[in-house]
Amino acid sequence: MVTFFGILLLLACIGASPIDRRPVVERFNPVRTSSNPTTPLQVGNGNFAFGSDITGLQTFLPFATMSSWGWKNDSLPAGKTVEDVENYRGVSWDNHGRLVQYDFNDGDPAIEQWLISNPNRVNLGRIGLVFRTPDGRNVNTTEDDLTDKRQELELWSGTLTSAFTWEGERVIVTTIASQESDSVGIRVDSNLLRTGQLNLFVDFPWNDGKAKFSAPFVGRWDVPANHTTELSTGRNLDEARPVIRHTMDASTFFTAFGGNAFEITRDSESTHRYTVKPLEPGASFMVTVAFSPVESSTPLPSFLETHELASATWNEFWGSGGFVDVLTGSTDSRAVELQRRIILSRYLLRVNEAGNTPPQESGLVNNGWYGKFHMEMYFWHSAHWALWNNWDLLRRSSDVYSRFLPSSIRRAQVQQNWDAGARWPKMTDPSGRSAPGEINNLLIWQQVHPIVFAEYEYRAFPTHEILEKWKDVVKETANWMADFAWFNESTGVYDIGPPMYVVSEDTNPNVTRNAAFELAYWDLGLGLASGWLDRVGEEVPTSWTRVKENLAALPMENGLYSVYDGIEGNFWDDPAFTNDHPALVGLHGWLPKTKSLDVKVAATTAEEVWSHWNISNCWGWDFPMLAMSAARNGQNDKAVEWLLHPLFQFDDAGMPIGGVRVPTPYFPGAGSLLFAVAFLARGWDGSAGEDGPGFPRNGWNVRVEGIRAAL
Ligand SMILES: *[C@@H]1O[C@H](CO)[C@@H](O)[C@H](O)[C@H]1NC(C)=O
Ligand SMILES: *[C@@H]1O[C@H](CO)[C@@H](O)[C@H](O)[C@H]1NC(C)=O
Ligand SMILES: *[C@@H]1O[C@H](CO)[C@@H](O)[C@H](O)[C@H]1NC(C)=O
Ligand SMILES: *[C@@H]1O[C@H](CO)[C@@H](O)[C@H](O)[C@H]1NC(C)=O
Ligand SMILES: *[C@@H]1O[C@H](CO)[C@@H](O)[C@H](O)[C@H]1NC(C)=O
Ligand SMILES: *[C@@H]1O[C@H](CO)[C@@H](O)[C@H](O)[C@H]1NC(C)=O
User: Fold this and answer.
1) Cβ of 535: how many Cβ atoms within 10 Å?
2) Radius of gyration (Cα) for the chain, nearest Å?
């Protein structure tokens, strides 16, 4: 009580009243009247999500049911053995007199491709409605046979309600995802249940790593002979609930059912489709369907329990943690669209990107890069959780750095022959193995992220426990950073690369030296890591200090920063270099001012990017990165323009559009949007104290609760 009134008193003193969050959230509930052919409406819990068509299920469109844990390995290529996998060695390239072994060009392309595409993420199954005649025959119904379709996703409670009329009868389907287990609760209300005209079906697809992208749907339904399913009980009794065991190659997944009494039967031995029929006639049928990598005998919660607990979790999510209201009191007409993106991104990232591993680019909607995740993208996917104070959600995955520490130390010191530290993978999976590939092995900007995540956590919780928790990760990260920099005898400074790939992945790694963004990030990371050791009272290794103090200056040409030292002078006019992620604007915006940065040059360089970069080829997080740069350089009008740029789009459900480069959704767009919104709304180290330091002075009223400032 004291705290509550204390907060009210505090708010009264500073003349603010708490944001009435619920109407701001509810205003943006997605409403659909037909299925969207490419994006589902989803329910989920961060580790598990269920994508729905207009029926609230997967009746007409096989949207995916995916998880952070559902992965499989394909069988090995013909004639290959486990020894061939273990013997994969890659190539060694010279790094300034040191031979470094990388995972690419091994000379066994079949094994290399297998390692790239395995393990891959699976679609766990499909649940839909079956329509029948009163005498029980299947009716081949299409979406066009349904009328008065209306579907609303109630964001505040995470509940999807879908209603339509079929054969003159109303059907209402309520769909919700449990927050305690990876299950979906389904409630169907209709008179058609009384006449036995409405059943459910469950079906299971084959999954493999043949396609790099599988969107909008995942898995194949046309090769039933390549996998098996097996039903272990036919009736729903608490002690003996039905479970379907689905085996694909060496992986097995379990689907368990609970709820009202029903009968479950397999449609035919040659398919993996099952029918779920209610046994008690009534106007309502409730089931819970739980997906798991292990067989479990824990009773499933009922639909009502699931609904109650899930609603409470969602209410808590919206009610606590950060909130930004740019809607109330703003006169700029763009405020509505920005608020819509904020709210829908908050929902979708909570559903798709709050799991136990870093997310893939398309979350739990469909598969990109075989479902693997990219450690350089983890910042854009997940750092916003830190600024929005959702530590419970961020901590589910941020311990990936301690989980991957031993293998990353081995990568650096055993495989690659460096003297010290841990080198983080780029494209990887829950095992931490690096996917082969030149870019996958030569990219370096993922290296600094853990130090930044650690720094944000310490700022929020300045305790000894947090210092200890991250200490080894911070140390080994910085140890490798110091080791990777090499002393250039002729200039007397430390250079980074070659070989290396820059953020935009489009320069020749063999000549890329002292890339501007990476140099600045190295400087920031080594500085933060040194600060970490000061806090714990340990001596900062001289190798770090030597490198940091003598790091090459940011490369410049004609008064502007360049992508890397030695890039052709006219690169600004060469489309080969002015495409893709314009990381030059990250030097002062995304990153705070680093030692050798000249703020004026950074601002001029950013403007040169605006006029010379191929913006039509920018994507996803480029726009929030451009916005943060504009804001830090004091160009607030431009900052908001970038956030709402016509090429940066979110669909009616809030899914960030992938565009020509990748399928929709491309969630780094949503994660970076939330990071940039927090940045503009709450500010950064050294920005003015009031709310909205990155927003234009006119037309915008920005109210902020529970948001942390950026570095
Ligand atoms: C896939 O195979 C790799 C290499 O043998 C192994 O490390 C990994 O655990 C396997 N993953 C799955 C999901 O089976
Ligand atoms: C980079 O150097 C390696 C050998 O160190 C060579 O095999 C490769 O072809 C070179 N790549 C380019 C793009 O020049
Ligand atoms: C159901 O109807 C659709 C549309 O008319 C058709 O494409 C499909 O083949 C039919 N399916 C079956 C199983 O008859
Ligand atoms: C299914 O199995 C058959 C026989 O092993 C194989 O030839 C075929 O390529 C498999 N299909 C897929 C999609 O993996
Ligand atoms: C050392 O730095 C100079 C100036 O930047 C550069 O031209 C030279 O190539 C570097 N040395 C090596 C061995 O790369
Ligand atoms: C700019 O990007 C667009 C979209 O990807 C592409 O079609 C175009 O060729 C690019 N322009 C140049 C000059 O590279």
Assistant:
1) 14
2) 27
Nearest atom in ligand 2 to the alpha carbon of residue 510 is 1
Report how far ligand 4's centroid is from the alpha carbon of 226 (Å): 6
Q: Strand order in 48-52's β-sheet?
A: 41-44, 48-52, 65-67
CA of 511 to the centre of ligand 6 (A): 24
Which sequence spans correspond to the domains of the chain? 33-72+120-306, 327-705
Give the end-to-end CA distance of the chain in Å, rounded to a whole number. Answer: 34
For 654-680, the pLDDT digits (tens) are: 999 998 789 999 999 999 999 999 999
What CATH number should be reported for the domain whose range is 327-705? 1.50.10.10
Residue nearest to atom 6 of ligand 3 (CA): 140
Q: Measured from the CA of 576, which atom of ligand 6 is nearest?
A: 14
Tokens of 107: 């000379």
Instruction: Pick the residue whose CA is nearest to atom 10 on ligand 4.
Output: 226
Residue 13 has pLDDT above 60, yes or no: no
Residue 243 vs residues 229, 253, 274, 491: alpha-carbon distances, Å: 10, 10, 11, 68
Phi and psi at residue 266, to the nearest 5°: -85, 135
Sheet containing 284-292: which strands, arranged edge to edge? Answer: 31-32, 147-154, 159-166, 169-177, 183-189, 284-292, 251-259, 243-248, 228-231
pLDDT value at residue 12 = 46
CA of 466 to the centre of ligand 4 (A): 50
The Å distance, Cα 662 to ligand 4 centre, comes to: 27
- Alpha-carbon span 645 to 339, nearest angstrom: 15
Domain 33-72+120-306 has CATH 2.40.50: no
* Euclidean distance between CA atoms 599 and 552, whole angstroms: 17
The packing angle between helices 378-387 and 668-682, to 10°, is 40
Measuring from atom 8 of ligand 2, which residue has the nearest CA? 510
What does the block give as tokens for 654? 């809030």
Residue 431 in contact with ligand 1 by CB distance below 6 A: yes
Ligand closest to CA 104: 2
What is the 140 CA–ligand 3 centroid distance (Å)? 6
Tens of pLDDT, residue by residue over 175-213, are 999 999 999 999 999 999 999 999 999 999 999 999 999
pTM above 0.90, yes or no: yes
Cβ atoms of 501 and 512 closer than 8 Å: yes
Contact yes or no for 372/428 (Cβ under 8 A): yes
What's the half-sphere exposure (Cβ side, CA atoms, 13 Å) at 400? 30
